[in-house]
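Posting for a labmate who doesn't have an account.
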Amino acid sequence: MEVEEMDKLLDVFELADVLGRSAETIKKDLKRNPVAVPPRVHLPGTRLLRWRPADVDAWLAEYVIGGE
């Protein structure tokens, strides 16, 4: 059985690139408007902001207008 390579977690700058927003806006939205940001991964014992690519894709898919 072949072990699949785990997806790399996105940091706030990589997420900003995907969403076409600034990292600062994403950080502000986490506090003031959490629904404007995909669900993030909380790594115990850290304050790191990280996102799984699959979660970002699923979150974006929820907002497709006129999709299939």
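Reply:
Got it, the structure tokens are right above this. Residues 14 and 23 are 9 Å apart (CA to CA).
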